[in-house]
Design brief:
Strand content: under 5%
Radius of gyration: 16 Å
Helix content: 55-70%
Number of strands: 0
Oligomer: single chain
Length: 131
């Protein structure tokens, strides 16, 4: 989840990350997004573990898994995400060591659950500009 940590760390610092399309740099993925070299299920479990490591709460990973029910592999892919998170929690795996980051992440995730990601991001960006 290094990219997720980088993304949220930017926002935490009041920065805005962006990307743009460069046609000459486009490439084609040869495997499904979110998969790993082993399987899509391994990739989804790894995503769940990464979310656990980053500091995501159980409710948010469950909501995220429900949201992904309409993507192949429909039910099993979502269950694999939850299992990756739960397995890491049950094994007591370490989490990202920055407690302020985890607090910031959970605050954003709760807002995203209540108001939607777009509104949560807009409000947090506006608040960061005022600080």
């Amino acid at each position: 989840m290094w990219d997720g940590i980088d993304h949220h760390r930017c926002r935490m610092n009041g920065w805005t990350a962006c990307s743009w399309d460069e046609p000459e740099l486009r490439f084609i993925h040869l495997r499904p997004e979110g998969s790993s070299q082993k399987s899509i299920y391994e990739g989804r479990m790894r995503h769940g573990y990464g979310q656990y490591f980053m500091g995501t709460g159980l409710l948010f990973i469950v909501a995220s898994s429900i949201y992904r029910l309409n993507r192949k592999p429909y039910v099993l892919g979502s269950l694999a995400m939850i299992w990756g998170w739960l397995k890491a929690a049950l094994e007591g795996k370490p989490r990202y060591e920055d407690a302020d980051f985890r607090k910031f992440l959970r605050h954003y995730q709760w807002r995203a659950l209540w108001f939607g990601k777009k509104r949560a991001l807009e409000e947090m960006d506006r608040e960061n500009r005022l600080v």
